[in-house]
Request: fold
Amino acid sequence: MSITKDQILEAFAAMSVMEVVELIEAMEEKFGVSAAAAVVSGGAEAAAVEEQTEFNVILTAHGENKVAVIKAIRSATGLGLKEAKAMSEASPVAVKEGVSKEEAEALKKELTEAGASVEIK
Reply:
């Protein structure tokens, strides 16, 4: 005789909470698994599905045309000449953090056209 899923669910519904906890513990012991691990992995999958909304623009190298890169950094960040120069020389460094995808792509394009190497994370 085979027991259906509906019959199993009805049996669970008739149990007290303590009886269900004892049954889960017995199943974990018999099958060598943990119900907690299944819950943790399910949460990680749900977090991975979320789309990233904030991006960081990372300058990895200033390239050959350092002056153009400094100008691009100044226009994007509003920094002074000294600060922009220091930023270009400190690569890898975050030029902007927590920006939208569109803004990150535009900044990356501007910096790469100036000769810099850029990553978006």
The CA atoms of residues 70 and 99 lie 20 Å apart.
